[in-house]
Structure formats: C-alpha cells, structure tokens
Amino acid sequence: MALDDAGLDLLFRNARTPVAWNDRPVGSDTxxxxxxxxxxxxxxxxxxxARFVFLTTEGARERLRPALSAGNVQRxxxxxxxxxxxxxxxxxxxxxxxxxxxxVRQWFAADVGLAEETAQRNGTLQGGYMIxxxxxxxxxxxxxxxFDAAMVEDAFLADQGWQANFLLCLGYCDGPPxxxxxxxxxFDDACVIV
Length: 194
Hints:
Layout: H1 5-13, H2 28-38, E1 50-55, H3 58-64, H4 73-78, E2 81-87, H5 95-98, H6 104-109, H7 112-136, E3 140-144, H8 149-157, E4 163-171, H9 187-190
Antiparallel strand pairs: 1-2, 2-4, 3-4
C-alpha cells in the first residue's frame, strides 16, 4: 500500500527546512518514538552503526557552540533539540546480536577499510531515516554540516569512541519559509535508466 497525497506532502512535497522555531518543546517521549522509527530502517547486513546524541538543554548547546561555523550558531542555539548524528566505528562488535549469520562480525573486524566505509555509509543512511521519521512525527528537521567534527567528538563522543557525521536540529517550525523552495535537478539531469 502506498502513502496517499497527504503523506507524500508531509514527508516530501510540503516539507521545508525551517528558518525559525517556535517555543514548543520536544519531549524525551517524542525522541524515543523517533528513534524507534529510525531503528527499523534497513542497513546493509543490519549493521546499524548510527549513534545519536540528543542535545536538549541550553548547557549542552553552549558546549556545542564553539564547534559551529558562524552561519549555523543562531539556527542551532534556538532549536529545541540538536542531534549529533554519529556512527560507531566498532559497530561490528554488535553484529552477533544484529545478524545471525556466522562470521559476519569477522568480515568487518578483519578489514578496517570495509568497516569504516560501512559505518559511514550506513550511519548516514540512518541519519536520513531520522529526518524522514521526524517529519512523519510532525517535527521539522534542519541538517547541518558546518562544524568542526574533532571538537564535537572531543566534547560529546570521546567516551564512546563514536565519530561525528552531521548535526540535525529538530523542533516545531515557526511558520513556513518566506522563500520558494530551492531548485532541484529533474529526472533527466540526475537519473539514467539502464
């Protein structure tokens, strides 16, 4: 069964990157519901390497501020939640739980390059699922890439050994943007059918 037009509008056609947030909080129950949707998205071999750190307090955002490029400070500081979308480079240590096939853990443990590539690719994929799940729950999502990853990792991820991928601000949009959607490439410019 396919989504109806209302569902497609919510997830894609009418969804926009927010320019301002309202004061409505995003509770921990919503964050748990969000992750419960994200974790169901497919990853290669069910490797599930993404890890998420939810920054919900002003103190946590202040710790993140020095790592941000100047253009991202205001948008992040006013967002109710900022998520550090990261991945665990040792994700394969959980493969015995996540994938019942024999020796899957060893594939990655024996090949650092394969493990790094798999963690980065699939962690990014799971971050994309988070954007779509947030929209499905009525949240707006603002992905950010202008930050110093080493600073973020030192401040928030060092104890776990996780690696930062991108930041994702979440909240409730304070009205639609006052500009038109930026252009997108058409099918013939971006796709080939073989």
